[in-house]
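Tokens in:
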């Protein structure tokens, strides 16, 4: 498969080629190159959409970083006689192509900050500040490691922390911490570019997590998530921090509640803060706890920002690996279920969220407290 960079592609007349996004639904839902058509790589051979593209048009395939598209065999029967190309560095390369001059970066930073202070103050800063106040997430004397994965949630969280610090209602310090678990060079460069453009002074440290879980066949995402958190705690403590902040938002919370019931047979939630079991004196906080994902996406798109979706080096399609080790398939399934329920019950999201605030223990057959099971018959 021949390769072409996005800069080279922009020199071609638009009517001479067709862009084909071969990533999975989790990645395409996060963003596509304008004008591209979506045909998942496993469906290329039987795709009716591919057959409708005029044969004189060049076909330019792209994935997340250019690996999967480069491996497409253009000698296959359904591509025979077609002029095929792989977009070098894939979607990440397209995003990085938008990182321009220092002046552009400065304007991007100012626009992002103004939008938090004004246009999206009610949707973003207010629920962020409310969560910090309600759950007592920030205290005087704290040194918080703001953990940045490179995605929209953690990048926004970093900007919100900068804004709330500017208000000086609490005296605390911040370290913007990025762990490189073995990123591809393209993904690491994207994180660094976005941080620079948004004025986030990141501290990067390396680990070998991706290599460590490379040979794990069963639940590698779960192990990877656990190891990532351990490395973050350890580095944060080494830097003098007493808390790590993660970018989970309101939608993550309600999806976790529902997934626990459907897939785990249990009722539990993603807590707004936790004491670390293995790192004495350390806490985990989630200040985006009351912020809606849709509002984060609107802020991102308004500011024309493009963030990393997933940097897993196993595949280009391992999207949204969460702290509990769940991957995109279960998350997407649960998102779609909630969206379907919302069509007939507009309060379904808030009801799921509030359900774990209104647990009536008198009507629970059995529950666990501090690892000990309690049955209703114990006091019947």
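Residues out:
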């Amino acid at each position: 498969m021949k390769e072409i960079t996005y800069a080279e592609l922009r020199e071609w007349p638009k009517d001479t080629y067709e862009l084909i996004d071969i990533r999975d639904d989790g990645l395409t839902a996060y963003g596509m190159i304008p004008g591209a058509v979506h045909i998942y790589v496993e469906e290329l051979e039987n795709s009716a959409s591919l057959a409708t593209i005029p044969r004189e048009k060049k076909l330019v395939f792209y994935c997340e970083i250019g690996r999967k598209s480069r491996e497409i065999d253009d000698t296959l029967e359904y591509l025979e006689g077609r002029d095929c190309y792989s977009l070098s560095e894939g979607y990440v390369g397209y995003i990085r192509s938008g990182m321009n001059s220092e002046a552009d970066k400065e304007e991007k930073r100012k626009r992002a900050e103004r939008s938090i202070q004004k246009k999206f103050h009610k949707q973003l800063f207010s629920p962020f500040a409310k969560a910090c106040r309600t759950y007592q997430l920030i205290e005087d004397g704290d040194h918080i490691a703001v953990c940045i994965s490179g995605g929209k949630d953690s990048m926004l969280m970093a900007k919100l922390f900068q804004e709330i610090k500017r208000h000086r209602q609490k005296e605390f310090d911040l370290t913007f911490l990025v762990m490189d678990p073995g990123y591809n060079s393209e993904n690491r460069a994207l994180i660094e570019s976005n941080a620079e453009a948004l004025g986030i002074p990141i501290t990067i440290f390396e680990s070998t997590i991706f290599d460590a879980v490379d040979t794990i066949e069963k639940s590698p995402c779960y192990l990877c998530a656990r190891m990532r958190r351990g490395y973050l705690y350890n580095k944060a403590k080494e830097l003098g921090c007493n808390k790590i902040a993660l970018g989970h938002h309101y939608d993550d919370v309600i999806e976790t509640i529902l997934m626990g019931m459907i897939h785990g047979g249990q009722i539990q939630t993603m807590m707004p803060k936790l004491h670390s079991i293995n790192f004495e004196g350390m806490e985990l906080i989630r200040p985006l706890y009351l912020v809606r994902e849709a509002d984060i996406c609107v802020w991102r798109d308004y500011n024309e920002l493009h963030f990393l979706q997933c940097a897993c080096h196993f595949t280009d399609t391992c999207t949204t690996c969460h702290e509990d080790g769940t991957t995109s398939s279960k998350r997407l399934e649960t998102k779609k279920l909630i969206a379907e329920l919302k069509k007939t019950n507009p309060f379904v999201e808030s009801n799921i969220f509030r359900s774990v605030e209104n647990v009536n223990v008198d009507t629970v057959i059995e529950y666990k407290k501090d690892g000990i099971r309690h049955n209703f018959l114990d006091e019947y």
